[in-house]
Amino acid sequence: MHNHIDTLIGANTNITGDIHFIGGLRIDGHINGNVIAEDEEQSILVLSDAGHIEGKIQVANVIINGTVTGPIYASKYLELQGSAQIHGDVHYGSIEIKLGASVDGKMIHQDKLQSEKMVTLIPAAPE
Questions:
Q1: I want to staple 59 with a disulfide (CB 3.0 to 4.6 A). Which of 37, 79, 88, 110 is the partner?
Q2: Cβ atoms within 10 A of the Cβ of 1, count?
Q3: What is the pLDDT along the chain (127 residues), one digit of tens a residue?
Q4: Angle at 83 between CA 80 and CA 84, to 5 degrees
Q5: Would the pTM count as exceeding 0.90?
């Protein structure tokens, strides 16, 4: 996992529009748009307790302590800290949820090998 933050969006910053990034992104401000990592495997998003995102998040590793209104697609790791408030469906590879976090939506485990594990069942022959 990418261990450092390349970009910081400060607490007094409001952005309207989509954000596409590579590496690590920390958001302390308010985003009205989608937050999408271009390097899906190594990317990390940190949303502080002061941060708000209204839109889709599509990042491999996500740590949230703020508010998200919209779906989250964390293909590898999702951590919901104590002040996290999620209003939307959550798709994750692995997840850690701290006491106090809330999710108003479906929680869907994403298994990358899901299609390979599917087995077609053949109905039993009538006797």
A1: 37
A2: 11
A3: 546 899 999 999 999 999 999 999 999 999 999 999 998 688 999 999 999 999 999 999 999 999 999 999 999 999 999 999 999 999 999 999 999 999 999 999 987 644 444 555 666 666 6
A4: 40
A5: no
